[in-house]
Amino acid sequence: MMLGQVEDAFRALKSEPGLRPVYHRLDRRLEGHLFITVPAYHLLAAMQRRLQEHGINYRRETIRTRLATQMRVTVALTNDQGERLYLRQTTDPEPFHLEVYRALGLPPKPLKTKKIKV
After folding, report:
1. Phi-psi region of 55 (alpha: psi -120 to 50; beta: other; left: phi over 0)
2. pLDDT of residue 45
3. Of residues 62, 88, 58, 86, the one with CA closest to residue 73
4. I want to staple 51 with a disulfide (CB 3.0 to 4.6 A). Which of 2, 27, 37, 56 is the partner?
5. Rounded CA gap, 44 and 38, in Å?
6. Taking the CB of residue 48, how many other CB atoms lie within 10 A of it?
7. In angstroms, what CA-CA distances link 92 with 6, 46, 65, 105, 107?
8. How far does Cα 67 stand from its chain's mean position?
9. Which of 110, 112, 114 is nearest to 85 (CA)?
């Protein structure tokens, strides 16, 4: 069972960020690939363990899909003086987001609203 979880995690780590297939012809590139992949797997495993301790037993793909509904959005406005304003903020978290964030000790809105005047 553990082998299946490890293989699933490595497949996800390579496919999702677009690292698959891996065609490394130089040892240093292969080492760089492993340098990124192995710590990423440990991070995923630690997060999965923490979630399970809090009774959240979904598969990684399910958690990722459900968390993907919270986004950063940018609104562009023009004021009375003709200045262009951009407001960038995080959408409100849903109850599932809050449950996962609490289990992992993360803030529900990690980034503050950003205002840019052009």
Report:
1. left
2. 84
3. 88
4. 56
5. 10
6. 18
7. 33, 26, 16, 17, 12
8. 8
9. 114
CA dist 24 and 50 (Å) reads 34
String of DSSP letters for 69-95: TS-EEEEEEE-TTS-EEEEEEEPPPPH
Sorted by where each begins, the domain ranges of the chain are 2-65, 71-117
pLDDT in tens, 22-36: 666 767 776 777 777
Give the model's pLDDT for residue 33. 72
Count of other CB atoms within 10 angstroms of residue 10: 16
Q: What are phi and psi of 87, to 5 degrees?
A: -115, 125
Q: Residue 8 and residue 62: Cα distance in Å, rounded?
A: 13
Strand pairing partners for 89? 73
Structure tokens that stand for 105 in this block: 């000790």
What is the DSSP annotation of 43-62? HHHHHHHHHHHTT----HHH
Rounded Cα–Cα distance for residues 13 and 10 (Å)? 5
